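Re: How this chain folds, sequence and tokenised backbone to follow

Filed under: protein folding, tokenised backbone structure, sequence and structure records.

Contents: The amino acid chain and a row of whole-number tokens, matched residue for residue.

Body of memo: The sequence and its backbone structure tokens, given next.
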Amino acid sequence: MKSFVATVLVALLFILALIFGARNEQVVTISYFVAQGEYRLPVVLAVVFFAGFILSWLVASYYIVRLKLSLATTQKKLNQVMAKAPQDVDA
């Protein structure tokens, strides 16, 4: 359910950015370290939004994979300990 809410929120933010960009057609100047370019505002907004989304997704994926590997390792150790422990029948 949490991922559904996050997906809807991201979609709404993207739609909001598109509406904002469609209403603002002016050209903006972007200065790089060694160059300079003029782009339309909707293009700049879309690129920045998409780059932020991808960067956030990559960072979140790294932590999720790390947690899943840690969980698998811990589960394996727990299974080994449970196999070595004597079985209590008095439970």
